[in-house]
Amino acid sequence: xxxxxxxxxxxxxxxxxxxxxxxxxxxxxxxxxxxxxxxxxxxxxxxxxxxxxxxxxxxxxxxxxxxxxxxxxxxxxxxxxxxxxxxxxxxxxxxxxxxxxxxxxxxxxxxxxxxxxxxxxxxxxxxxxxxxxxxxxxxxxxxxxxxxxxxxxxxxxxxxxxxxxxxxxxxxxxxxxxxxxxxxxxxxxxxxxxxxxxxxxxxxxxxxxxxxxxxxxxxxxxxxxxxxxxxxxxxxxxxxxxxxxxxxxxxxxxxxxxxxxxxxxxxxxxxxxxxxxxxxxxxxxxxxxxxxxxxxxxxxxxxxxxxxxxxxxxxxxxxxxxxxxxxxxxxxxxxxxxxxxxxxxxxxxxxxxxxxxxxxxxxxxxxxxxxxxxxxxxxxxxxxxxxxxxxxxxxxxxxxxxxxxxxxxxxxxxxxxxxxxxxxxxxxxxx
Length: 431
Hints:
Elements: E1 5-6, E2 14-15, H1 18-25, H2 30-34, E3 38-45, H3 48-55, H4 60-66, H5 80-93, H6 99-105, E4 111-123, E5 128-130, H7 135-138, E6 146-157, E7 162-166, E8 169-179, E9 191-194, E10 230-231, E11 238-239, E12 274-278, E13 288-293, E14 317-321, E15 324-327, E16 353-357, E17 366-371, E18 422-425, E19 428-429
Parallel strand pairs: 4-6, 5-7, 6-8, 7-9, 8-12, 9-13, 12-16, 13-17, 16-18
Antiparallel strand pairs: 1-2, 3-4, 10-11, 14-15, 18-19
C-alpha cells in the first residue's frame, strides 16, 4: 500500500520514506506536511486485508512471535467477541483467517479509519493531545469499532505532556521520538492507551452508574372511628343520631410499600489493541512512559427507601344515647416497607494486547505499565420504612398495636476486577 515515489515538476522521482508513503496513501498533502501542517483523513477501508496494512507495521517474523499472545480466546470463541479477537490476531499477528469469520465480519466493513500525519509534533508540559476518533465523528453507535493511525516523523514530548487514545484500535508509527527531561510523578505517563469513554455492554443501556431505586410509598392513614354527635334539647345535650358499635372502631393504617432495587452498574469501557512502532529514539532522549488501563465498572444504584406505615385511625365513642355509649378500638399502625437492595457494581472493562516495537538497543528507554480494571462499588441498601403509630386509645384496656418497621435493604456486591492489558515490548511479554 505504501510503495511509491515522490515527484515534483522538473525533478527526478525520489523514493518515498515510510512517513511519506503512509501520508500519501491517506491522501495527505505532502507539501503541506513539509510546511508544518497536521493532516487528518477520514477513510473507509474496504476489507480486513487492507485494514491490516494500515494498522500493523511489524515484520512477518515479529507477527509470528505474537501469535501466542492471542491464545485460544477462552469462552469468547463462539461469540461475536471471538470473531473480533480472531480478526485482530490476523491483523497484528498473521493468524490464518477462517472464511466463516470473514463472512461474519462483512457487515462491519468498510471499516472507519482516522489517519493523522505530521512532520513534527512537539508537546509542551501540560499539553494533552487526544487522538481518539469518536462515534460522533462517524455518526455511528457507540459499539462500532473505530480505528486510528498516527503517522509522525518527529515527536517530542516534554515532561507532563500526554498523547492519549481512548477506546480505538490504535497504531502509531514515529520515526524519531525524543522525550525531554523533567520531573515526573509515579502516576504520570507520556502515552496513554485508555478505554472507551462509555460502557459497551449490550444488555443494559443508560449511564455507567446504576440509577437508584424508587422509594416506596407511605401507607395511607386508617380512617377514624365515628363518635356520637351532640345536639341541644329542652332536656339538655342529647345524641344527634345513634352510632353502631362497629363504626366506632378506627381503621388500620396501610402498609408502606417496599423500595425498589437499585440498578447494577454497567461494565467499564474496553481497552482496545494498540501497536506502537518507534523507529528510533533521539540520542539525548529520556525514558518514555506508557500506561494502559481499561475502564472501571459503574457504581451500583442505591436501593430505594421503604415507605412508612400509615397511622392507625382514632377510636370513636358511639351508642344510642349519651347515657348508653361505648368505646371503639383504635386502628393498628401499618407496617413499614422494606428498603430496596443496592445494585451490584459493574465489572471492570476488558483489555487487549499492546505491542511496542523499537530498536532492541533502545528498549531500556521504554517504561510500560498496565493496571487491572476495577469493579464498581455496590450500591447501598435502602433504609427501612418505619411502622405507623397506632391510633390513640379511648380506654386503657383497649390499646392498638403499632406497625412493625420494614427490613433494611442489603448492599450490592462489588463488580468483578478484570486483568490488565498484556504489554509486549519487541514481542516479549512484560511481566
